[in-house]
Design goal:
This protein is α+β, with helices and mostly antiparallel strands. The chain is about 30% helix and about 30% strand. It has 16 helices and 29 strands. The strands form six sheets. An eight-stranded antiparallel β-sheet has the order 8-7-9-10-21-20-18-19, with helices on both faces. It has a six-stranded mixed β-sheet with strand order 1-2-3-4-6-5. α1 packs across α10, α10 crosses α11 and α15 packs antiparallel against α16. Keywords: Cytoplasm, Magnesium, Metal-binding, Nucleotidyltransferase, RNA-binding, Transferase.
């Protein structure tokens, strides 16, 4: 049965059609917000997938180019693989929803969001986020919802709920918050050094809006929601846990996981697992789930040690950061490099500078962002965790980590006018044991400064973890979590920023939300850690950006010319500008407003190219001294080329002070001579003279 539901959200009408389309999906919501239209569907397999020990959830965000009246680029004119923006949006939907599915659910679930129309006033990301939640809530798929998501912007210190694309372009804050009825379950933010207190206010402004949306979702579920289907539980039998504890007592498991070395812990667990496999050799049912059982035994052990005994696996205090190290210039000949090490997490970052023409072009649904000049990319090879597998390019995790570091650093980058370069930083993970994304931010900051990029302030990042008990008050926040504490804990709360404020947040949790007290404590704890990393580690490795770019980095000269002269500089079919490039070896970019960038590695050649462009783009003036090359000789005089495509005539009478019978008596083809502009003759032609060049002319 087709039913339509509506609510007012941030001054616009949100409409949800149920039973109108995609009726064979477990749940489908045809979403309208202004003229933005997204079809969100939730489907699940009938049976659990065999041989897995995780919940197989897939979230897709499909950007259809017809939604903004475009035909896709490329040869086949069809949407291809998901863009980075689509992948990041999928991750933002996945992260808050995944913990709300049953932990022992093994049926495949796909949440698909197809963007069919985009209204610049109504961001399709918000619509897809809400659509996924509604489609899942009204379906028969087990789900402990509802949840809701809201975006917050900030202009002139005022919060804006679900800002338009135009407002986002000038906003000091880009915040997305997901909530359940009681708690915040996901935070993602990019900000221009927002103070901690202001950020907390923004988070809970979104949380308030989410409560109104949840009431709306509840009303939809009450009317059209399906009963949740029963499923085959994949929970570990309690008898198996009891048998394991008989063979491996809790004290032995504590000893196995209590080490500051990841390899040692893994070897200890391998020995324990082999002992259990031998003990249960005759029980195929238990052997099939033994790996998951050992994992859960480790998890319970670590959580008990932390929460009850205040003991961390590597022996650190609750607020203690692992050993830190920072250095720059570790890679020769690149434009900038740095390495940041935190315990067994190590990132090497390399900066490359290039002309603005090499900025990344974006082909997506956002009409306000068609390119970006700063690109941060993150790589995570298998050797960084002591494993072996073939490299298949960046996955969603790598793209997400790169985007987080990029978002953290964008607010401190110089403007294009201040620093006319495209900038690429690449974080190579040498070793990983927790929070490589935050180590990437630290390494990138130092790498940029080493490359001579005049960033406004250094940025550092750190992550906090969480272990919770039975009640909201029974919890412990951990500073600088390592991999084990991330795997077995309840939260990964990443915050990056300067001394003065936050530039990025990404919060993932595995439980059904955080209280405000936990959020405030985590943000305060990350600020303390960030200040320490900046002051005691990073700023001692490199205190400020270098005054100039490195020896091997390209140099750039910027100049402005009259836009009416662009055609003369470029020449017919690019003949003039290509001649300058061929002679000087530089790269030249010209924008429609007359901004010219000359990029090269040899200053003399760059100066020569600039001189040529100045000559071509300017009108000759009386008294101007020029140097030209004789390119043609006629009976009446010699033609000189002052720059590619820019010539002038020296009449035979102006070649020398004495009478000249033949032009060749004074100059030959290829001669380079100095002339002075004599202004225009009676015919309006500009003339030049060699004989009238002042003796002191330079």
């Amino acid at each position: 049965m087709y039913k339509s539901f509506s609510m007012e959200l941030a001054g616009r009408t949100l409409t949800v059609d149920v039973g109108r389309v995609a009726k064979q999906a477990n749940g489908a919501a045809f979403m309208h917000y202004g003229d933005t239209v997204v079809l969100s569907t939730a489907t699940a397999s009938e049976k659990p997938r065999d041989g897995i020990d995780f919940f197989p959830l897939s979230v897709e965000y499909e950007e259809k180019m017809y939604a903004v009246g475009k035909i896709p680029g490329g040869f086949n004119k069809r949407e291809g693989k998901a863009s980075e923006h689509a992948i990041l949006t999928s991750r933002v939907i996945d992260r808050p929803m995944r913990p709300l599915f049953p932990k022992d659910y093994r049926n495949d679930v796909t949440l698909n969001n197809m963007v069919m129309s985009v209204d610049p006033e109504c961001d399709p990301e918000v619509v897809a986020m809400l659509g996924s939640a509604i489609a899942t809530c009204i379906s028969d798929i087990p789900f402990d919802g509802p949840c809701a998501m809201t975006q917050i912007g900030m202009i002139d210190g005022e919060f804006i709920v679900n800002p338009t694309l135009a407002q986002k372009a000038v906003s000091d804050l880009k915040l997305t918050v997901a909530s359940t009825r009681e708690k915040v379950i996901m935070i993602e933010a990019g900000a221009k050094e927002i103070p901690e207190a202001k950020m907390i206010d923004a988070i809970y402004k979104a949380h308030e809006v989410n409560q109104e949306i949840i009431k709306f979702i509840d009303s939809i579920v009450a009317e059209v929601g399906k009963p949740k289907h029963a499923y085959e539980s994949c929970a570990i039998p309690e008898e198996l846990f009891a048998a394991i504890k008989e063979i491996v007592p809790p004290a032995e498991m504590e000893e196995a996981v209590f080490s500051d070395d990841k390899q040692t812990r893994e070897e200890n667990i391998r020995v324990i697992t082999e002992k259990l496999e031998e003990a249960f050799a005759d029980n195929e049912e238990w052997l099939a789930v033994l790996g998951e059982a050992v994992y859960q035994y480790q998890k319970k052990t670590v959580r008990k040690m932390i929460l009850k005994d205040h003991k961390r696996p590597d022996g650190r205090a609750i607020t203690e950061i692992r050993p830190l190290a920072a250095e720059v210039d570790i890679i020769p000949r690149v434009h900038g490099s740095a390495m940041f090490t935190r315990g067994q997490t190590q990132i090497c970052n390399v900066t490359t500078l290039a002309p603005l023409s090499e900025a990344q072009k974006l082909d997506g649904l956002d009409e306000f962002e068609t390119s970006k000049r700063y690109m941060h990319q993150y790589n995570f090879p298998s050797y960084s965790v002591g494993e072996t597998k073939p490299s298949r390019g960046p996955g969603r995790r790598e793209i997400g980590h790169g985007a987080l570091a990029e978002r953290a650093l964008v607010p401190v980058l110089p403007t294009e006018e201040e620093f006319p370069y495209a900038i690429r930083t690449v974080s190579e993970t040498f070793e990983s044991n927790g929070s490589t994304s935050q180590a990437s931010i630290c390494a990138s900051t130092m790498s940029l400064m080493a490359a001579g990029v005049p960033i406004k302030k250094p940025v550092a990042g750190i992550s906090c973890g969480l272990v919770t008990g039975e009640t909201d008050d029974d919890y412990l926040v951990l500073t600088d979590i390592q991999g084990l504490e991330d795997f077995f804990g309840d939260m990964d709360f990443k915050v990056a920023g300067t001394h003065d404020g936050i530039t990025a947040i990404q919060m993932d949790i595995k439980i059904h939300g955080l209280t405000r007290q936990i959020v405030e404590e985590a943000i305060a704890r990350t600020k303390q850690a960030r200040e320490y990393i900046l002051t005691e580690i990073m700023e001692k490795a490199i205190a400020e950006p270098r005054k100039t770019v490195g020896e091997f980095a390209p140099k750039i000269i910027q100049m402005m010319i009259d836009p009416q002269k662009i055609g003369e500089v470029v020449g017919q079919r690019g003949k003039t500008i290509n001649a300058i490039i061929d002679e000087t070896g530089v790269k030249i970019d010209i924008t429609d407003d007359g901004a010219v960038s000359i990029c090269g590695t040899e200053q003399a050649m760059m100066d020569q190219a600039k001189k040529y462009i100045e000559i071509i783009a300017s009108d000759f003036t009386e008294g101007q001294i020029l140097t030209g090359k004789v390119v043609s000789i006629k009976d009446f005089g010699a033609f000189l080329e002052f720059a590619p495509g820019k010539e002038g005539l020296v009449h035979i009478s102006k070649l020398a002070k004495q009478r000249v019978e033949k032009v060749e008596d004074v100059v030959s083809l290829g001669d380079v001579v100095k002339v002075v502009c004599m202004g225009k003759d009676k015919m309006g032609r500009v003339s030049f003279s060699i004989k009238d060049v002042p003796a002191d002319a330079k």
